[in-house]
């Protein structure tokens, strides 16, 4: 047997069947048509956002990084609950603009001329990733006759400790090395552009409150230093995010209260030059990961060399991350359950595999589950972020998974 991550809170059980947003999984599955499906409980997202906001300093803006879950209907529902949307492609920009949200910022390397044009036309903030991008964006803005809104994405000299995915420190394709930022800021201001400050993103998926607090302290200090060197206070600083969620055995949920208290201190103690600066964090998975479940049906139950395999109609083409092939070095088990036997005590070790013809396609490796048979429904948790949109859905030509939202406000 191999351990699995903790099953997130917020899911219920009726007559032995798992419920999501109070709805039985068997009913959700038959309403959706063929399995597999993704189900997102909007009420879980809503309460997550309000708990987070209560824990953060009141003046801090909270943005949603929509690459974690760009489903337009869901982004539409989240947009009014947050202070801004951060996008990383022209496609995401379209989704964000359709919500009518006022604050949109666009980061990401390799923005094409078409993407820059769409962003400048819409008047969103461009988080510039290089001096070359500044040059290209200025030329397009001039042609359009628009005053561009520019922030500089900084590649800091530090990174978020314990971070699942390092995005800062050393040579990186993201942002501009801190040492070159002041000169770039002076060029931006001299060009007549609307100078919007800094975007400093140092990492992702951290569960250690002290590490996040320390990174935020360093980020605020860096914003002050760069403002000093540029001779202009940053009007706005996006501190990045990195708030993680517990996917794996021994992962413990992030203490956001502690992060909030430490951040309040760091903001209170900030240098005078950034006294009037406004601050934001941008979170993806922290807002949505735990609210989503991937439901897939057992098609075949078989044995090989004494081991039980539950072969499902789903797999890594929909939920790549659970198979361990999305940014993890060692494959570990996501939380997984037999949704159709949710209160049956586990008594059997089985491997839950997908229907793709590759050994990579494993959703649960030797996990302890209630004995499951053909037609039982398996729930793979933590599917609200980097699930449907972050999986190679064309691989092997199976249909895409249907996505549905429950717990919608009346
Ligand atoms: C991916 C990304 C995020 C979201 O990361 P999470 O780990 O999902 O919170 C935020 N900001 C930037 C710049 C990103 O690239």
In terms of quaternary structure, what is this?
Answer: single chain
Q: Total helix count?
A: 10
**How is the CATH topology of the largest domain named?**
TIM Barrel
Mind telling me the CATH class of the largest domain?
Alpha Beta
Name the poorly predicted regions: none
Q: In angstroms, what is the radius of gyration?
A: 23 Å
Mean pLDDT figure: 96
Number of domains as seen in the coordinates = 2
What does this molecule look like?
By secondary structure, this protein is of the alpha/beta class. The chain has 2 domains: 146 residues, Lyase, Ornithine Decarboxylase, Chain A, domain 1 (Beta Barrel), CATH 2.40.37; 214 residues, Alanine racemase (TIM Barrel). Strand 2 and strand 3 form a beta hairpin. Helix 5 crosses helix 6, helix 7 crosses helix 8 and helix 8 runs parallel beside helix 9. The longest helix has 22 residues. The chain is elongated and about 70 Å long. It starts with 11 loop residues before the first strand and ends with a strand. It binds pyridoxal-5'-phosphate (PLP). The site of pyridoxal-5'-phosphate has 16 residues, from strand 15 and helix 10.
Please outline what is shown here.
The chain is α/β, with parallel strands linked by helices and about 400 residues long. It is built from 10 helices and 22 strands.
């Amino acid at each position: 047997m191999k351990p699995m991550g903790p099953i997130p809170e917020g899911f219920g059980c009726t007559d032995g069947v798992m419920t999501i947003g109070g709805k039985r999984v068997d009913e959700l599955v038959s309403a959706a048509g063929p399995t597999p499906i993704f189900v997102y409980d909007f009420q879980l997202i809503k309460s997550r956002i309000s708990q987070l906001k209560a824990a953060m300093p009141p003046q801090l803006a909270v943005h949603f990084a929509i690459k974690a879950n760009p489903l337009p209907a869901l982004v539409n529902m989240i947009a009014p609950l947050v202070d801004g949307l951060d996008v990383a492609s022209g496609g995401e920009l379209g989704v964000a603009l359709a919500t009518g949200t006022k604050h949109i910022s666009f980061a990401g390397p390799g923005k094409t001329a078409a993407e820059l044009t769409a962003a400048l036309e819409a008047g969103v903030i461009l988080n510039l990733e290089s001096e070359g991008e500044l040059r290209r964006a200025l030329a397009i803005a001039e042609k359009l006759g628009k005053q561009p809104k520019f922030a500089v994405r900084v590649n800091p000299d530090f990174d978020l400790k314990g971070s699942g995915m390092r995005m800062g420190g050393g040579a990186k394709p993201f942002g501009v090395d801190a040492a070159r930022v002041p000169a770039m800021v002076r060029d931006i201001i001299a060009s007549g552009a609307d100078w919007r400050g800094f975007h400093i993103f140092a990492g992702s998926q951290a569960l250690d409150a002290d590490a996040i607090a320390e990174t935020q302290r360093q980020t605020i200090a860096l914003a002050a230093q760069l403002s000093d060197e540029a001779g202009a206070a940053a009007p706005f600083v996006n501190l990045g995010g990195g708030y993680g969620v517990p996917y794996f055995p021994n992962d413990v949920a992030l203490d956001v209260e502690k992060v909030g208290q430490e951040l309040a201190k760091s903001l209170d103690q900030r240098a005078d030059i950034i006294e009037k600066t406004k601050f934001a964090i941008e979170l993806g998975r922290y807002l949505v990961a735990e609210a989503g479940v991937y439901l897939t049906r057992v098609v075949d139950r078989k044995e090989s060399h004494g081991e039980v395999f539950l072969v499902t109609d789903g797999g890594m083409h929909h939920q790549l991350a659970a198979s361990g092939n999305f940014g993890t070095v060692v494959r570990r088990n996501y939380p997984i359950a037999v949704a159709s036997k949710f209160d049956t005590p586990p008594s059997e070790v089985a491997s839950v595999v997908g229907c793709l013809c590759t050994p990579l396609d494993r959703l649960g490796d030797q996990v302890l589950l209630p004995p499951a048979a053909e037609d039982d429904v398996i729930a793979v948790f933590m599917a609200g972020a980097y699930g449907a949109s972050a999986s190679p859905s064309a691989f092997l030509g199976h249909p895409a998974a249907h996505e549905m939202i429950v717990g919608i406000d009346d």
